[in-house]
Amino acid sequence: MEVTPVAFSELSSRSQGEPSEVIRERVIKAREIQAERYKSVEGIFVNAQMSSKQLREICRISNVGENLLKRAMEKLNLSARAYDRILKVSRTIADLAGNADIQPEHLAEAIHYRSLDREGWAG
């Protein structure tokens, strides 16, 4: 996956990032979304706990998303387990964004996290 370089102006900017209170509210809202989603499923409270069957039902993606994930799987030589984890993480990213559907940008972010994980975050 190709990542574009960050401009120096962004790196050296003095602007503040998203305040912790705003992030906290998004996380609370995402947890509420997940609690509602799994309210009728015993023992499951968050996306990370989904079974493979639930994953196929809950984490539907568009053709664009499928192609993106397919290319990432091939290029990064990822396993079926990694595929499932990427879908679960992308579902959570969509929940944090307040989106009912997983968008390609949510998949791209989850794939990016997975590629960082494979590199051990140190490169």
From TrEMBL:
<dbReference type="InterPro" id="IPR045006">
    <property type="entry name" value="CHLI-like"/>
</dbReference>
<protein>
    <submittedName>
        <fullName>Magnesium chelatase, subunit ChlI C-terminal</fullName>
    </submittedName>
</protein>
<feature type="domain" description="Mg chelatase-related protein C-terminal">
    <location>
        <begin position="17"/>
        <end position="114"/>
    </location>
</feature>
<dbReference type="Pfam" id="PF13335">
    <property type="entry name" value="Mg_chelatase_C"/>
</dbReference>
<dbReference type="InterPro" id="IPR025158">
    <property type="entry name" value="Mg_chelat-rel_C"/>
</dbReference>
<dbReference type="InterPro" id="IPR027417">
    <property type="entry name" value="P-loop_NTPase"/>
</dbReference>
